[in-house]
Amino acid sequence: MNDPMPMADVEHPDASDPRTSNALDVAALRYGLSAREREIAQLLLDGYATLNAAAILELSEHTVRTYVRRLYKKLNVSNRADLVCRVLTAPA
């Protein structure tokens, strides 16, 4: 059985797509996201799994899951695909 990727080997990306970042800025203002919620949303938009986002942010996986639930509630979505769609289409 393969061992999971060690947490120390996961690094935060240096740059995201500027269009995604701009859309997230708009969504953060529109839906009142905290700085941490925005940070986690960016990682989700970048395709990171909960475990990897937790490692990058040096948080527990449980804490990241809590933030993801809060994001779902604030954006009125029920899954990551809808979260991405909502962020990318948030009206200014």
- The radius of gyration over CA amounts to 13 Å
Q: Which architecture of one domain per CATH?
A: Orthogonal Bundle
Count of distinct strands: 0
Uncertain regions spanning at least 5 consecutive residues = 1-8
The overall average pLDDT, rounded, is: 85
In CATH's first tier, which class of one domain applies?
A: Mainly Alpha
Inertia-based shape: globular
* Assigned CATH superfamily of one domain: Winged helix-like DNA-binding domain superfamily/Winged helix DNA-binding domain
Quaternary assembly: single chain
- The number of helical elements comes to 5
- Beta-strand content bin: under 5%
Q: Helix- and strand-based class?
A: mainly alpha
How would you characterize this protein structure?
α2 packs across α4. The protein has helices at residues 18-31, 35-45, 50-57, 61-75, 80-88. The chain has a domain at 31-92: Arc Repressor Mutant, subunit A (Orthogonal Bundle), CATH 1.10.10. 62% of the residues lie in helices and 0% in strands. The protein has five helices and no strands. The radius of gyration is 13 Å and the shape is globular. The protein is mainly alpha-helical and 92 residues long.
What distinguishing features does this structure have?
single chain; 92 residues; mainly alpha; Arc Repressor Mutant, subunit A; 5 helices; 0% strand; disordered N terminus
